[in-house]
Amino acid sequence: MKHKAGFVNIVGNPNVGKSTLMNQLVGERISIATFKAQTTRHRIMGIVNTDDMQIVFSDTPGVLKPNYKLQESMLAFSESALADADVLLYVTDVVENPEKNMDFLTKVQKMQIPVLLLINKIDELSGPTSKTNETSQTRLTSIVERWHALLPNAEILPISAKNKFGIDMLLKRIKELLPESPAYFDKEQLTDKPARFFVSEIIREKILLYYDKEIPYSVEVVVESFKETAKNIHIRAIIYVERDSQKGIIIGHQGVALKKVGAESRKALERFFGKSIYLETYVKVDKDWRSSQKELNNFGYNPG
User: How far is the CA of 247 from the CAs of 38, 97, 250, 252, 302, in angstroms?
Assistant: First the structure.
């Protein structure tokens, strides 16, 4: 039996549903998926294994024009995904302007590997629009034509990652495009990231959900200790912010806000690991860490 394996990298602008798609494809909750843009900061691999195939999916940060060093690092993660893919999944949605980020799109246009352009959130097209009398099919046809003009060599597939529409068809097409190759990772492996990484991502997700404005984007979470036994895991995590005022907001009046983040994180961690979790969280100030290359390297933002 011939074995196929390859790297399938997911790229696109912020908030088009890349992380939701990744989680549907892998069948596990690997990437943070919230309603806020710029949720994913790292390049995260999720691995799908069958007897005759291994797909190494890679979720990347949304492509954006960097305003500070953290965003420069995030863009570097996205651009690195263009260099080592066997198949590229370029994700957009039904409301995005196709010409939103032409610098990155120009690089995609030049790629020699198969590119699958995924028009996500097609469930939002259902029924006539409030502004026109166009049907959802007419609107979808118009979107497909605009994208085809920009990426004439890409295969275009309409999907709804949230509703799992088109996911089986997408997986079938990916398998057809993968090269013959032995597996790159152990067949039992689900991701390339260690357990500590998912702890910090889950805590960061809760902060994204519960705090407004700039706070979530000024936060980094570091797991200081992770001690696992057969029945439970004891975790000590530090939440870093850039300002003393942000520290006060994260903690909240009489510590109420931080307790809520801790409680919700613990529940999510118990679901993720299938064990009882003892979670301690502390807040520290690391001034302007997003603009310090040294601090970014310490926090693992070095795409190599």
Answer: 21, 37, 5, 8, 26
Cβ-defined contacts of 294-298 (< 8 Å, 24+): 296/69, 296/70, 296/73
Cβ contact 22:40 at 8 Å: no
| Pairing, β 232-241 against β 53-59 | unpaired
pLDDT averaged over 10-residue windows placed end to end, the chain, 304 residues: 89 84 77 46 72 85 53 57 82 87 84 93 71 74 92 94 93 94 84 79 85 74 90 92 88 92 91 89 84 71 58
Give CA–CA dist 44/37, Å, rounded.
17
Q: What pLDDT, on a 0 to 100 scale, did the predictor assign at position 214? A: 66
Q: What is the Cα 120 distance to its own chain's centre?
A: 15
Residues constituting the chain:
304
Structure tokens at 225: 């200790």
Cα(74)–Cα(156) distance, integer angstroms: 26
List the 276-285 sheet strands across, edge first: 220-228, 232-241, 276-285
Q: Write the Ramachandran bin of 174: left for phi over 0, alpha for psi from -120 to 50, otherwise beta.
A: alpha
Q: Residues 6 or more apart from 24 whose CB is under 8 A from it?
A: 161, 164, 167
Residue 268 DSSP label = H
Q: Are β-strands 155-158 and 4-12 bridged in parallel, bridged antiparallel, or unpaired?
A: unpaired
Which letter does DSSP use for residue 66 in this model? -
Do residues 104 and 63 make contact, with C-beta atoms less than 8 angstroms apart?
A: yes
C-alpha–C-alpha distance, residues 123 and 95, integer Å: 12
Q: Give buried/exposed letters for 157-196 (b at 16+ CB in 10 A, else e).
A: bbbbbeeeebbeebbebbbeebeeeeeeeeeeebbebeeb
For residue 51, what are the contacts with CB-CB under 8 A and spacing of at least 6? 1
